[in-house]
């Protein structure tokens, strides 16, 4: 079977809508994946897991004195309902987390210069801040062409309490700071809890060594406002093409394909899979993760979450066949991480773009920047590499993670301080 970029683009077009974790769009995306798997002649398995789910019901930010003005804001998910009926307080601009400023912040609603990182959140809580306003976008954004960011606090933030928080466009934030607000009111009401997300799984048993498994992963969810064509409709359609390839060319080892839900909420789909299948992990020799490929402009720049020997092998192969790309040893913020945490090496298939050639996590992640030719070129090389690995007489990659990568994975998963 010949790898087809046009076939991948056709499926990508069917996924051209917002696929937000735990919402109807993600479920619709999963259904399209299932339909494509069945068309290949394989019955998919759907595994449901719980993921964080919130819906903002009411959000408002008002300057009360010296002069009334209301600003458009978006609410932080999981920042609680303490401001459901409105929190009134003095307003302070905290330009840095310097203790000189934080000593003045108790009981105030604080305007920040950035988002709420772990250490920032901890310091704000300790300082006694009662609400937070964070910047969104750039000063030059046009309201008609951009969206006010929607963010959420993670469990690592909220384990010791919550702070009502909102995002405001930077242009409005500049006006707000210049107006020297005194008393302000922040209102934020939301529903918080959990809802279903899902992984979709398909497998082809190996003809000779079925107990040795190579896993192919890609997340199919997107973020709010985004159709996620590059991130990561592209990976979604590419592992489907790899499934077709192995269905037409039966592999000696088992190949398992996992379309992961809720990656954008913190790799939740791949974490759920690993947690649910501890008994199967010893059989998995390698994770091939595909996340953001196929743009018209760009360059394949893969990351190996494993030994340098894997890097050398890929480099040898792309030079031998004349495929233009680069590869290096490193982690990548995607679904290979939970597998690496269990000692399973990974190859992350990525395409980097020039500045302005693509945008992710916003409405500008569109199908227009994608290329059937680029999808086909990357997938064709991946199929050749996969043939060598999946059908090798002896699997050439040791199932281990070098210490320097273990260190990076542990830091990424916050097992160690940055």
Question: Could you walk me through the main structural features you see in this protein, from its secondary elements to its overall organization?
Answer:
With 418 residues, this protein is an alpha/beta fold. It folds into 2 domains: 5-52 and 195-412, Zn peptidases (Aminopeptidase, 3-Layer(aba) Sandwich); 67-181, Glucose Oxidase, domain 1, CATH 3.50.30.30. Helix content is 31%, strand content 28%. The protein is built from 12 helices and 15 strands. It has helices at 5-14, 24-40, 99-102, 118-127, 155-158, 170-178, 229-248, 268-276, 308-321, 337-341, 372-390, 403-412, and strands at 45-65, 69-71, 73-75, 87-94, 109-112, 131-136, 165-169, 183-204, 209-219, 253-260, 284-290, 299-305, 326-329, 346-349, 351-352. The chain has a 15-stranded mixed sheet that branches. Helix 4 (118-127) links the parallel strand 5 and strand 6. Helix 1 packs across helix 7 (229-248) and helix 7 (229-248) crosses helix 11. The longest helix has 20 residues, at 229-248. The chain is elongated and about 75 Å long. The chain starts with a helix and ends in a 6-residue tail after the last helix. The mean pLDDT is 96.
CATH third-level topology of the largest domain: Aminopeptidase
Q: Domain count, please report it.
A: 2
CATH superfamily of the largest domain: Zn peptidases
Largest sheet: 15 strands, mixed
Keywords:
single chain; 418 residues; Aminopeptidase; Glucose Oxidase, domain 1; 2 domains; 12 helices; 15 strands
Outline of this structure?
The chain is of the alpha/beta class and 418 residues long.
